[in-house]
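FAQ: What does the model actually see?

It sees only this:
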Amino acid sequence: MRIGIIGAGNIGTILARRLARVCHDVSIANSRAPETVPAAALSTGARAVWAADATAGADVVIVSVNLGQIPTVADLVAKAPSGAVVLDTSNYFPHRDGVIEGLGAGQNESAWVQAQYRRPLVKVWNTITTASFADKATPVGAPGRIALPVAADDDAQREVGMELVEQTGFDAFDAGVIADSWRQQPGTPAYTTDLTAEQLPAALAAADAARAARRRDLMMEILLERAEPDGTLPGPDFQLASTRLLF
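And it is asked to produce this:
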């Protein structure tokens, strides 16, 4: 497939590398010039392009930017080919994204994002940390393989998202429609807890919309309180233990 990625941060870079490796035609853009895209994103054959060109002719568009940046890329996404499947990896963190009206108290983040894009989306790759995404990909059937929930209103689009999740080294779990995607938002038991396909259904079922935002904010308070003087956050083992305890 022709895949255009908007966002060349940690997750976008890993996606570009892995999806190009399995022979997709991948282009990736950041908010600046193509030459500023990290070399790591291009190491397996992806091409750096201008953001305005990332969606041109794409079969799949992946948006991997902070939720607060979505209004700045929404028009690009809306102009993607009508048949393109749009996948979004974003999560809402008020300390980073600012206060957004209609979000922050358990509301459905993906419904808000979908309204910005003015087209359907697939919610995916939002429940895993950069460290786990980089280091814990495993082959199909490997013991303890991490599962990632995939939500979308269109069954065929959800299937595309699930296929790509499998190709990036994780089990894909059908998490239903966008109206239920709040169950995979920050502060819920499915968020960054590295669960298997056997464990994930119970975690999604146990999500509590009324408590998720407070747990998300508490997680950030703990991480920031334990940060080094230079701002470096605690390592991945601490983060995983914290989220499993809190969520």
